[in-house]
Amino acid sequence: MRVLVADDERLLADTVAQGLRRLSMAVDVAYDGEAAFDRLGVNRYDVAVLDRDMPGRTGDELCRWIVDSGATTKILLLTAAAGIRDRVEGLGLGADDYLTKPFAFAELAARVLALSRRSAPALPPVLEQDGIVLDSTRHTVSRDGQVLSLSSKEFAVLHVLMRAGGRIVSSEELLEQAWDENADPFTNTVRMTVMTLRRKLGDPPLLHTVRRAGYRLGA
């Protein structure tokens, strides 16, 4: 899952991003509306967390742009305005959810996860395939009842592969969905992560390399 966090309160934005990364999300951060707009124009995000009152382009403007562009990105607006009229106005812009400041990180994370499951095609919070059970809410993975200890990136890669439903996923697609914009596309980070994930999944092998195409999960 790839998320954009845009807020001019740098400490808040960095703290939220750090917390979401611990949940195996790829997170890009923007500290003003112009930087957020640039990232939205280049990257495909599952969820955008936007502060309504940013310098440059406001969260409201970004929300309208996302909706008008036809992107599937789900939008969570953040604001200090807690009145009913403010919430109604925010949702009327096309936002999918609305959260007032101050907020508990656990609630924000739950809302981001819920929004990501509403992207097309909608997916349940628990994915199952060939004995593997991945629970995105509890951030747990097991195979044939045995709990597996995965790193954040291993969890993210497995999530992308399970969402693919057996189709081949390229290295480029994994890099786009499981890593943020700071990832170096010329490193072997994807291959190394897949290698350690394959080992942790155990036998019989379920994670296959398809030469010159990518990776596929399935028996």
TrEMBL record:
PTM sites of type 4-aspartylphosphate: D51
Protein name: DNA-binding response regulator
UniProt entry keywords in alphabetical sequence: DNA-binding, Phosphoprotein
Domain of life: Bacteria
DNA-binding region as annotated in the record: 124-219
PROSITE patterns for this protein: OMPR_PHOB, RESPONSE_REGULATORY
Chain ranges of the OmpR/PhoB-type domain: 124-219
CDD domains: trans_reg_C
InterPro entries, per database record: CheY-like_superfamily, OmpR/PhoB-type_DNA-bd, Sig_transdc_resp-reg_receiver, WalR-like, WH-like_DNA-bd_sf
Domain (Response regulatory): residue spans on this chain: 2-116
Entry-linked SMART domains: REC (SM00448), Trans_reg_C (SM00862)
Species whose genome carries this gene: Actinoplanes couchii
GO function terms (MF aspect): DNA binding
